[in-house]
Write a structure and sequence with these properties.
The chain is an alpha+beta fold. Helices cover 26% and strands 30% of the residues. It has three helices and nine strands, in the order ββββαββαβαββ. The chain has a seven-stranded mixed beta sheet with strand order 1-7-6-5-4-3-2. Strands 8-9 form a two-stranded antiparallel sheet. A hairpin with a 4-residue loop joins strand 5 and strand 6. Helix 1 runs antiparallel to helix 3. It is globular, with a radius of gyration of 19 Å.
Length: 196
């Protein structure tokens, strides 16, 4: 079966968002252009890592260009996109592997999110070989979302993504574990229940 690639070259909107209440949220990447909308599910840690790496890559582009690039040093100061995900949110696939690249010729960041795939391997070497083959298989690989963003779009995405990640449950001031509305059993308090 041939690979399904959801390609967005400079989409109208590319955001990270959630569905559900804090503590039970499902995280999504959503790209849209015109009437086309693609949503892929991923973990909170993947959203945070993607946003942080995007900022790091953009910082490196700015550093290497000596400031003579179209990439802004910080997120644009205009009105931020705080709107919820476009409904209905229909998961195309769950993300397993993500990749980032900078296209210097077109001054675009390329974000790829590939579907989670289970690999059968007898040894670590077999697993590494299977993973490498999977990443290079353009024709028959798992579904993929590929988005090309301007530097400003990438900065805006990273800022919103980090805001979404940090909008969850507040951390316990003692152990840093998330506080549920009814409190939590704090290991630093020897198991006593701590209120929110």
């Amino acid at each position: 079966m041939s690979r399904q690639v959801f390609l967005y070259d400079q989409p109208e909107r590319f955001v990270a968002g959630t569905v559900g209440l804090p503590g039970r949220r499902t995280f999504f990447l959503q790209a849209s252009a015109g009437s086309r909308v693609t949503s892929v599910a991923l973990e909170k840690t993947q959203v945070a890592a993607l946003a942080e790496r995007m900022d790091e890559l953009l910082d490196e582009v700015v550093r290497r260009s000596g400031g003579s690039t179209v990439v802004p040093a910080t997120a644009p100061t205009g009105p931020a996109d705080t709107a919820p995900l476009d409904a209905p949110v229909e998961e195309e696939f769950r993300v397993g592997t993500m990749a980032l690249a900078w296209d210097g010729d077109d001054q675009r960041m390329i974000v790829e999110a590939q579907a989670l795939v289970e690999l059968d391997a007898e040894s670590e070497e077999d697993l590494a070989e299977a993973e490498e083959k999977l990443l290079q298989d353009e024709e028959n690989g798992p579904p993929m979302l590929r988005v090309r963003l301007t530097g400003a779009q990438a900065r805006s995405f990273a800022k919103r993504a980090l805001d979404v990640v940090n909008a969850g449950r507040p951390p316990c001031p003692l152990c840093s574990l998330p506080l549920d509305p009814e409190g939590h059993v704090c290991p630093r308090q020897n198991g006593y229940r701590r209120g929110a």
